[in-house]
Each structure stands twice: as C-alpha cells, then as structure tokens.
Write a structure and sequence with these properties.
Number of helices: 15
Strand content: 15-25%
Helix content: 40-55%
Largest sheet: 10 strands, mixed
Distance between the termini: 67 Å
Number of strands: 17
Oligomer: single chain
Shape: elongated
Structural class: alpha+beta
Length: about 475
Amino acid sequence: MYRPTIGLEVHAELKTKTKMFCDSRNDPDETRPNINVCPVCMAHPGTLPVINRAAVEHIVRIGTAIGGTIADFTEFDRKSYFYPDIPKGYQISQYEHPLVTGGSLAGVAITRVHLEEDTARSIHARDKSLVDFNRAGIPLMELVTEPVIHDAETAGRFARELQLLLRTLGAGEANLEKGEMRIEANISVSNEEGVFGTKVEVKNINSFRSVERTIAYEIERQIRLIESGGEVSQETRGWDEAKQETFHQRFKEGSADYRYFPEPDLPKLYLSDIPECSREVLAASMPELPWERRARYASAYALKEGDAAFLCASLERANFFDAVARALESDAALITLAANYVVSDLAGIYAKSGIEDFASLDASAFAKLIRLVGSGELSSRGAKDTLLVLVEKGGDPETIAKEQGLIQVHDTSVLREAVRGVLAEEPKAVAEYQAGKEAALQYLLGKSMKATRGAGNPAMLRDILIEELH
C-alpha cells in the first residue's frame, strides 16, 4: 500500500501600484511588451533597489489571517541563478528569515510565506525566444506548505481557499489563467510507514483542476515506476495539459546551488518599528475571512454547508448575497429562501450562459423577488421566469411578473374555470385518479398550473381539483 505525500509551493503576484524594488508600474493587464520597465528592474549598473512597503504589509496581513508567526527581524537574500528572464543574474528573495512562519489554511499546515520579485516572461516562437520584462520585479508572494497533503482533492481545496483569501484581503487577484498565481507540487510516494519517497517537483500547473489531475497522474506514474523495478529520480517535471501527463524538464537543484547570501543593497527590517505591522493595526484592518463568513451563514441563516461554501466561493457571490440579506432586513426565513434561489436558479442561469455576473444584478430587486415568493404572490415557476428576465434585462420584478401574467391568481372562480378546462381535456387522467391512482392528481395539478401560466396558487388549485373530481 503506497502513501502519497504532497507539499505545495504557491507563487502569487501581489496587487500594488509599483513593482517590488522600483517605481515601474505593476500592471498585469499591460499587453505591450517592455513598457513597464526602468533601470532598476532592468538591472542597469549603479541602480539600487528600494523595498515596496505595501507588498510587505500584504504578506504580514496574509500571515495574520493564517495564524502564522510574524517575524520581528527579516531580511532579503540574493538567489543566484542564470536564466534569460532574470535580468540581474540573481533574484532578490528571502531564505533564512522569511516574513511569516507557520500557520495553517484549509486544514493544511504552512511552513513559511515570504516575499520576492517575479521574473520576466519568456515567449518562445518557432525560431527564436523573446523576453518581456513587464513582469520582472513585480512583488511575488511565495507560500510553502508542510508535506502533509495526501490526496489530490485536498491540494485542490487548499489552492482554491488561498486564492479566495488573497482576493478577500485585496492582496491579489490570483488568476491562474493569467499567471498571477502559479502552483508547484512536490510529490512522493512510499510504502514504508514514516518514510518519505523521492520527491518530484511538477511545474506549469495553470488551473485548479490541473492541480488535482497533475497530482493524481504523478502518484500513479511513480507507483508504476517503482512496481516495475525502477527508481524515482529527484527532478523537476512539467504538466502537459494537452496530453494530461507530466514530462521531464531538469534534475532538481538544491538550495546550495543557488548560493543564497544576504542582499547587501537592502536594509534589514524590524517589523516592530513599522506601525502598520503592529498586532493592533492588523487586527483592526482585517476583513471578514472566508471561513468566518461561511460560519456566519451557517449559524445566522441555517444554510447547509454546501450552500454556504458555494456562496462564499467568490467575493462577488458573497457580496451579492450579503447585499440581498441586508435588503431583506435580517428576515432569516426569507434569507434562507434567497440562498436557495441563488444556489439553484440563479447559478443555473449563469451556468447556462457561461457568464457569472453577480456584480451587475441589482440585489434590492432580487430581494423584492424573494419577498414576492415569500408572500405567495409569485409561485416557484413564476419566480424562475421573472428571474430570467431580471438577469437578462433588469427592471422591477413585480412589474415584470405583472407584464408576463405571472402574479399568482387567488380568484377562486378563475382557478375553477381553468381546472374544469383541464379535466375536460384529460378524461384518461380523471379516470385513473378515480380508479385510485394518486399520481394522476399531480399530473392534473401540473396541467392546471400550465393552464394558468404558472400564476395559479398551487394549494388552491389542488383543493379545487379534489373538489371537482369528487
């Protein structure tokens, strides 16, 4: 029986106005190459770096959120290696004294969180390679977990929670498809209790689903290799999305190969001297964190765990739902009903269109729709139809429902007329019901609702049906 062991290394670009050590713009949406560059980030002789205070504050807030230990003393180091996307021939990073140590997220223990500068972006054409230095020097968070993950699903859940945390804190957007968050997995397998296997690092993972697929594939590859008499090599591999498999890139370097030493051009940092990094200031500035929000939804509105998780999976969803809850004035029953409509009906509309746009939907209008359902003025069917128009065109839900003839009819004479018409058209179902088949009643109720275009009060229709059938 083989036991996989997985540790993750996550790099995430931080949201700041300028780069880590210079005043060039930090603009991940810039499409023109080599626009946001300057002598500092291009490593011209004689230039000196200056630490970006906002980037340090982002890391300290992240460390606070995960319950890590914030360093009092910290410093930057030079990580020496030559590659075309490293203008200096070394990267300014942190080694012995990271900003944050320890903590946990989504049940996964964290080793450290530190700051460094991003590399440039290499673009490989058919007969040449080009380098875009816009990204060179952007503030980059590196987070390293302990090797305590044992399955692909846990790794995927951790990565999603980290992205959500970064967005909640305003530290970064962490879009994997744009390279703003990059995940590397260190994977080993062993059949000896308490003994780690040979670690393989896999890079080039650009989606959460790929994180899970990469880990699952690599576990199986290593097991097959061992069982066939081979040995797992300590190496760096890439993930081929098209082939859904890993491939060899290079044999793994050790930390000694990078020749780390303290960066001589930057001062040492004593965080206790920075007022913005004090415990009091940090505690006061922290927003409601994702797990706190999920717990609030569960306790305040009695939402199911899955529904609370869905609503909190993105800031746009959660902010929309909170706005709806405020518009419903803390009416717990209506808020629970609203959650059901968001999770099922509204999510279904967005899934069908392929575009999730909670930000453009008027929360007060959605709340009014929920009030109409709660008061019995709109049936479930009528609410679905009204919601579709509300999403596509906007407007007032009551006006939409009236224009569409969806406001629930309570007039007994109108409903009785509709029922009698259905019974006249469905003699077979009438006979089946009178022969004892209760399912026929539900069929006739459905037909009656259709005859009233979903506007008939279901309970009243049912009573009238039974009355007429007897």
